[in-house]
From TrEMBL:
Taxonomic source organism: Thauera mechernichensis
Signal is among the record's keywords: yes
Any single Pfam family the record assigns to this protein: Trypsin_2
Gene Ontology MF annotations: hydrolase activity
PDZ domain residues: 275-341
Cross-referenced InterPro entries: Chloro_Bact_Ser_Proteases, PDZ, PDZ_6, PDZ_sf, Pept_S1C_Do, Peptidase_S1_PA, Peptidase_S1C
Enzyme class: hydrolase
Name the UniProt record assigns to this protein: Do family serine endopeptidase
Keywords noted in UniProt: Hydrolase, Periplasm, Protease, Repeat, Serine protease, Signal
Amino acid sequence: MRRLWLIFAQAVTISVAVLFVLNTLKPEWLRGATPASVIAILEAPSTGERTPATGSYAQAAQQSMPAVVHIFTSKAGRSQRHPLFDDPLFRHFFGERPGNSPNQRESGLGSGVIVSPDGYVLTNNHVIETADAIEVALNDGRKYPAQLIGRDPETDLAVLRVDTGGQLPAITLSASDSLSVGDVVLAIGNPFGVGQTVTMGIVSALGRSQLGINTFENYIQTDAAINPGNSGGALVDSAGHLVGINTAIYSRSGGSLGIGFAIPVSIARNVLTQIVSTGEVIRGWVGVEIQDLTPELAESFGFADARGTLIAGVLRGSPAERAGIRPGDVLIELDGAAVRDPKTMLDMVAALPPGREATFRIRRGGQEIELGVEIGRRPTPQPSR
């Protein structure tokens, strides 16, 4: 009996070994099935490089994305004091607590654009305005501390610089007059901190102003999706050239509604050049308050038409007061160029260098007179902290 049991055990062992070998090398023999059929599929021939599909903007995106960076900011803050600390009963049982709340760090994020291989970065002023520390993360993941070179609150632009010890991928700036309504544009940035993102749209309008966002407004409007975190990022054309700096959106929910605004590259170039050269932006100023001359106002002043812009007020000691300009005057020409509205006048005066004398042609009562005004320097806005 013992011998039979040994023979049985050896047979079972050999059988298990055979099954294991067959299951490993020829599993289909055990299943009694033929090998699975091969599905016939069609594949495009491999050429080594991918050819962009018709209508694709991959080349423009690939050309400009390395120059768009993420900007991380931080500043000192204080946590709110708990209301219980002011309760007399709480203080009776637990004693006094320190009056100062512990310091905390508040963080923020935005985007920026490398505009020079030397490490100069353009971004929005509101991205870095209150920051104590600024860090720039490149497209390849490298992070560097950034130095604030200068900022211009009146256009909401700022210039940073990062020192990497080498050359950086810089974006190509477009010609200032190369954009038209209907052109395709790409918005590149770091929305909501999810990482670099590219969205596509068209130029919806040019020269948008009187939005109440900044002092000097001449925005590009686009329906390319721009969200929080995109501020300071690049708006590029279909060739990958920088046409604007994304700066604001119109939204009731905080997300994109298809109405975004970018600062044109012509303004950004001028601000960049001045800040890199002098550390600030210098503009002309005459010290007047201006407003639209409506047909009703023109009629009340006895004017036959509503040409020009109304001088509503004159600051004491300003260049305008010294030149003899009075409230109620209507400016119609500046150095021979027609003044159509307050924005035109603001831009024309700001473009004049301080110290130069400009000719103001105004209407006063029923006559037109010319006054020479020595242009002053526009006061620098105080930072909001």
